[in-house]
Amino acid sequence: MSLSVYATGLAGIERGMQGLQRVAQDVAGSAGNGFDTARIAESLVYAKQHQESIEASVSAIGMADRAMGHLIDILV
After folding, report:
1. Is the pLDDT of residue 52 over 70?
2. What is the pTM of this model?
3. Is residue 40 very low, low, confident or very high in pLDDT (cuts 50, 70, 90)?
4. Distances from the Cα of 73 to the Cαs of 43, 61, 67, 76, in angstroms?
5. Taking the mean position of all CA atoms in its chain, how far away is CA 24?
6. How far apart are CA 12 and CA 42, in angstroms?
7. Are 23 and 46 in contact (CB under 8 A)?
8. How far apart are the first and last CA of the chain?
9. How many CB atoms lie within 10 A of CB 43?
10. Shortest CA distance to 10 belongs to which of 47, 64, 46?
11. Partner of 61 for a Cys bridge, out of 9, 11, 18, 37, CB 3.0 to 4.6 A?
C-alpha cells in the first residue's frame, strides 16, 4: 500500500515540476515578445496551481512515511 503512495506522490511531484518548467518557458517567451501581461498573469496562476500540486504530493509522501513508521513501531 505505502509503496504505491510513494510512487503516486513522486509522480505528482514530477508532473508539477514539469508544469512549472512549462510556465517558466511561457514567461520567458512572453518577456522576449514585449511582456504580454495577460499571458504572464495566466502563467503565474498556473505556477501557483503546480506549486500546490507539488506540496500536496509531498504531504502525501510525508503521511505515508509517518504511517509506515507507526506500523514499524507497532510491529517491533
Report:
1. yes
2. 0.80
3. confident
4. 45, 18, 10, 5
5. 14
6. 21
7. yes
8. 19
9. 20
10. 64
11. 9
